[in-house]
Amino acid sequence: MVNFSWRGSCLPPAILVLFAQAGIPRVLADALNTSTTIGIYNTSHTPSNLPWDTYNYCNGPHVNAAYYVLPESHTPGVKGSTLVYVNSMMRHHKRTPDNLYPSERALNPPSGWNCTDFIQMEYAGGAAQVYHETVIPSWHPFASQIWAGSCDEGHLTVEGLADAIQHGKDFWSVYHDTLGFLDNVSEDELYVHATYELLTQQVASGVLYGMNPTTVDRRVPIYAQPELIDAFVPAYACPAADAIRTAYQSVPAWSDHLVQHQALQDHLAEMLGVQGISAWLSWYDHFFDTFTSRTCNDHPLPCNASGACVTWEEAETVFGIGDWEYNYIWNAAQNASTYNSLTFSVAFEELSMNFKRFRAGNETHKMRFYVAHDGSMIRLMSGLGFGKVAPLRWPELGSEIVMEVWRDASADQHVRVMFQGTPFPSLEWVPLNDFISLLDASVVQNVFETCNTSSSSS
Fold first, then answer.
1. Ranges of the chain with pLDDT below 70
2. Level-2 CATH architecture, domain 71-94+164-237+335-457
3. How far apart are CA 52 and CA 67, in angstroms?
4. Any residues with CB less than 8 A from the CB of 4 and at least 6 apart, and which?
5. 280: nearest Cα among 409, 104, 403
6. Which of 91, 111, 116, 293 could bridge across to 97 with cysteines, CB 3.0–4.6 Å?
7. SS (HEC) of 370-382
8. Residue 268: what pLDDT?
């Protein structure tokens, strides 16, 4: 099965809630039922019979020369505008699961996961050029906790690297080949920022290689913040934000969806050995991760030692619930915007500073390029107001938001936000000052003190 669409007489409740929050009447949602493709979850390649920008969790649509449109195509009166500055953020590409079942090895084929397809370079400059390989001895007393093979959890796969390289080619086809904006992959033109996670740094290297294969013989800096304070994961502690999220996940708007799907959760928990483990049962994040990591990397859905397997229909339901949860947590819940601002305030501040630096004529790079995670993307989507246009979905692997600054014939500067490779409605042509104000709206003053003050959760 290539694409994922809901079947039956009506859409699943989780999807109906999404439609309702978007203002789509149930009668229309039902009418959309069998003909609407909800998304793709088992291949990086969107079938040719579907729109090129169909939601593809395995490899999100992004800017590319074949479908890129100039501002004048969407916005009358801007003919002759020139691209002058870009900030872009993307999610990493395919990886192994980030979450492991207590008896992970028993739920995988005997061959396990293979990560020897590409060399994992990791060495200090001026020292021996070493690389590492993950070794999982079959005799290890704790081997049952991880699959067989040569992959760690959250490990970039060779398929993910291939997607990252192609992503770089697509990006270059627009900003070099089509627009002539970037001249080369060099530090004076391009500032690259990843997170402390090796995964995002490897994806950044793949993207850079796709942009220009000569980078394979060059040293290109990729900047990252320390794990303790990394703003783009985000990783810094914020007890006040935690309290806010706990509060809105303790009300019927949240708890009812868990009750509604209790039979499915009980069935999956028993089959996969996670009964009584709160991290698995308080939401569907872990199930979503372990299912999509398998299907996107051409692995079967998990089967236990008795031969019971997760079915595709069960996985589909989890995908729909996952979308509902992500939209609720970061967009629809009461105080979600406050939670979002607190946890991503530092990232919004850095982005705002970038555009202010450009506005003042002090920017030293043509483009700033960030590689981060799903939690990064969903917060940026929410802060930019995407959730006011339509319910948010779980950010795809390789999903991308590009913030372009164009200067028109009158020397006025406007921002155009590209999402899934196309201009985003309501952010197609925003005055630069207004866009900076939009970013600043999610910046919390004295965020360190606010995060660590319990009264801010009220």
1. 1-37, 74, 76-77, 454-458
2. 3-Layer(aba) Sandwich (3.40)
3. 9
4. 37, 38, 39, 40, 41, 316, 319
5. 104
6. 293
7. EEECHHHHHHHHH
8. 98
